[in-house]
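User: I'm new to structure prediction. If I give you an amino acid sequence, what do you actually give back? Let's try with this one:
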Amino acid sequence: MKIDIIDYESCSAAGLNLSALRTSLKQHKSGLIKNNLPGSDLDTWIGVVEQINGVDDLGQWQSRNNALAALGYEQGTIRHTVSALINKYGAARIGLVMGSSTSSIDRTEEAYTKLNSDNGLTEAFKQPFVHNPHAPALFAAHLSGIKGPSLTINTACSSSAKVFATGARWLETGIVDAVLVGGVDTLCLSVLHGFNSLQLLSPNPCKPFDQHRDGINLGEASGFAVLQRAGENDDGRGITLAGYGESSDAHHMSHPHPDGLGARLSMTQALKRAALSPESVDYINLHGTSSRANDLIEGKLISELFPASVRCSSTKAWMGHTLGAAGITEAIIAMDTLHTNVIPGSKNLETLDEALDFSIKATDEEKVCQHVMTNSFGFGGNNCTLLFSRAE
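Assistant: Good question. You get back a string of structure tokens that encode the predicted 3D arrangement of the chain. For your 392 residues, that looks like this:
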């Protein structure tokens, strides 16, 4: 069963909304800045959404993560689209699937710095729905009024790619008539210093797949998309979720399988589900974190599975690796090429890793694409690949 993409919207350091993101991509204008996160002196670059600081009226829901979700939900026409679907089908017939890796741990960090004299939480931080791994979906349900089934997926960096697969299955089985899928993750000390302890952060703007890459940059983002069964809504974007693949290496807590077995499986599954050959894919938005190991493994897989005619790029140099929000952010970038007819280049790429040989360039390419793919590979070997096509 094909699934229609009815609406989508992105919010990151590269742009407050989809329109701003398109401009940043076209101008090759990065949102990365030198690390200025309060309490951190790490020498690295980060992708910060400055407008989050203005969202401080969430009451019992207050957290940086929820603030970014709220900010993203107000961009574009997402709120209007969801409200119209609720009016049509009823709130209980709309599903909700959110992806995250931090949930609202930023708020929990702050709570521990402001304990009362008995080492307990102060009143302002007694927020059971915030100090909670399920916080993103709980808050999104509060924001949207959705009363159907809800789920928060936390599979590291593939979290908000897998929301599309879950949403599609819910629609295929008739559990719901529409699904709001999303992802949100924000910068916090636990994340930044955790990745630093793994020696993965770069002191420079990241250079995915470049011979001289030396690590990743972290960022924050939120994104949303609305899914329905194909043909059930005339207001769609002319884009379908044609296929998806999911796998788990279970190889190592933070290192991908050296031969990329799980990543290979997620890509081949997506192609099989979409009934497409590798030659049919016009563009692949790669996971491309700029780490030495991940880029090498993914790049070799691409050259083994796809012909040189398939154009590839990594877009993480625009907003950083947004972790649990990376999947939906890059899915939106990939599917939006079906609207803009422009394949974004791979920013900061100067010299391709000498061990790799596939079609990737720093410059954009104008092309009318029919089928586009995006990869999201997370810690623990949690992999997801999505395939989007022009609606027939």
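You can read the tokens as a compact description of the fold. Here is one thing that stands out. The first strand starts at residue 3 and ends at 12.
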